[in-house]
Design brief:
The relative contact order is 0.17. The chain is an all-alpha fold. It has helices at residues 23-43, 51-83, 90-113, 119-148, 150-162, 166-177, 182-189, 194-201, 203-212. Helix 1 packs antiparallel against helix 2 (51-83), helix 2 packs across helix 5 (150-162) and helix 3 (90-113) packs antiparallel against helix 4 (119-148). Helix content is 74%, strand content 0%. The longest helix has 33 residues, at 51-83.
Length: 216
């Protein structure tokens, strides 16, 4: 599949060993896992009156994950199947995406109807699926993306970012950088146009923190 087949990278162990051009992809995985843990923690203490605010935050998270998965299924996997000899595994990853979609729908439904007694179980199911899916995906995909090289991966990444709806684009930068290691933030920030980077550090960061406050 690639010269990096024997290399095992995992965002659970940090992104220090991952090539810099793939760290944006890795930061999204770190953020998904972080927010799945936040949901589980919030599920244990949320009161009926807090379900709406928690639901608004989860809606933002769900939108990002939904876009991330659709961009993989519709852009990244077809590209890799067409340009990387022997690339496989995307069918199983698409099945994972379907399971996550159903789990997110369950969490959203619990929050919308205020059935908070069901939330701990629904949140844990979601967190378990996120953990298992990301482990699976990173084993399959990280070595392939690393082998693409900076220029080729950059072209694919621009197509993926260009497919993001406005709701996701205004949330993505502060969401990815929240709690991330400084080296990875610097590597990814260097690829973002300066005006967009400034907007992400100011207006969008403040908006992100307001959305996050009820969860923390």
């Amino acid at each position: 599949m690639s010269g990096n087949e024997s290399v095992v990278w995992s965002s659970e162990q940090g992104l220090g060993g991952l090539p810099e051009h793939v760290r944006g992809f890795g930061l999204m995985h770190v953020a998904m896992r972080r927010d799945a843990a936040r949901l589980c923690a919030a599920a244990r203490s949320v009161r009926p009156g807090g379900a709406r605010a928690l639901g608004e935050w989860f809606g933002r998270l769900r939108a990002v994950i939904d876009w991330h998965h659709h961009s993989e299924d519709e852009i990244l996997w077809p590209y890799l199947r067409g340009h990387v000899p022997g690339f496989d595994g995307s069918g199983a990853l698409e099945q994972d995406h379907g399971a996550l979609d159903r789990s997110m729908s369950r969490v959203a439904g619990v929050l919308t109807t205020g059935r908070i007694e069901e939330l701990p179980e629904a949140a844990q199911e979601f967190a378990d699926l996120v953990r298992d899916h990301l482990r699976h995906e990173e084993r399959v995909v990280f070595p392939v993306l690393a082998a693409l090289g900076v220029a080729e991966y950059g072209r694919v990444e621009r197509r993926i970012i260009g497919s993001a709806p406005a709701q996701v684009m205004t949330y993505l930068q502060p969401w990815m950088f929240d709690g991330a290691d400084a080296a990875s933030v610097a590597a990814v920030a260097a690829t973002i146009p300066a005006p967009v980077r400034l907007l992400g550090r100011t207006v969008l960061e403040r908006r992100y923190r307001r959305t996050l406050a009820p969860v923390l």
